[in-house]
Amino acid sequence: MVLHSFSTGKNLVYYTPALGPQAQFFHPDFHDVETVRAAMVHAMVRKHVERCIEEFQKGELTEVSLRRVLDSLEETPPRRQDLLYLQAGSTSLHAGILGMSLFQNGKTVDGLADPKDWPYKNVLEAVRDGWRVIQFPNMALMMDDTRTYGLGCEFILERWSENP
Q1: Residue 94 banded pLDDT, cuts 50, 70, 90
Q2: Are residues 96 and 153 in the same domain?
């Protein structure tokens, strides 16, 4: 399913040509494309099933109609979760990155040892690039100044993408 979006200034509007111009999804969470995609797939399948019910009631239901429903399910490619671990100097999204680990396609991405190779300078840049924060730094670990707990404040981010 092709997913398009445009901004209204306040919200991002998602739509797909497969559902027609009236099927637009307003979503306040700028980066939660997965929720919108799932809602659109649900709406598309529902539209095909309702069409099949109408055809059945008229005695016009065919195998082709039913296969259309199956095809609409197959238009949604399998999804994969990528993870980005960012260690920052503070809990602020603007704080500079001290360390980074990236997992894509179920594998660790090599070549991120040098800060010059890092794609982001702070957490906010990653969020603007489509990453979604799924865990903020654990503030309880920062209560005791006599102990160290790794490199700064760790943010965990996710991004969903299609399987290659």
Answers
A1: very high
A2: yes
